[in-house]
Amino acid sequence: MSNDEHNEASHMSVHELRRKSGDSSEKITINLGVVDLGQIDLLVQEGFYSNRTDLIRTAIRSQLANHADVVKETVTRKSFVLGLEHYSRADLEALQSAGETLQIQVLGMASIADDVTPELALATIESVVVLGP
């Protein structure tokens, strides 16, 4: 295998690591003033929203939509992967065999398989940045 073929194969193995899975959610707690909470309850009571959570999710999605261009530009500029990323022992062993390291940059959630040893992780993961859980 030529050096170019080796580099191309190694490059492809890194891309194979980047898999997206279905949605998951994270529970958060927020504090609201009594007036804000009363207004939310009024809107729920009047039928605008099915419950408090429905209103809060709608408000968050609205704000994320308002800032979608900034998020997209930043994700592209900083080379983040969107979604859920899982790194298996086989994935990291393939990187180790190729003599490569991984820079994990995820906007969402990243997980590493339970059977990955600390030594394997240290040998193959150069850095980790995760925005989300």
UniProtKB/TrEMBL annotation:
InterPro entries referenced in this protein's UniProt entry, alphabetically? Arc_rbn_hlx_hlx, RHH_8, Ribbon_hlx_hlx
Region (Disordered) location: 1-20
Q: Tell me which SUPFAM superfamilies the record gives.
A: Ribbon-helix-helix (SSF47598)
Entries under PANTHER family matching the protein: BLL4998 PROTEIN
Q: What is this protein called?
A: Transcriptional regulator
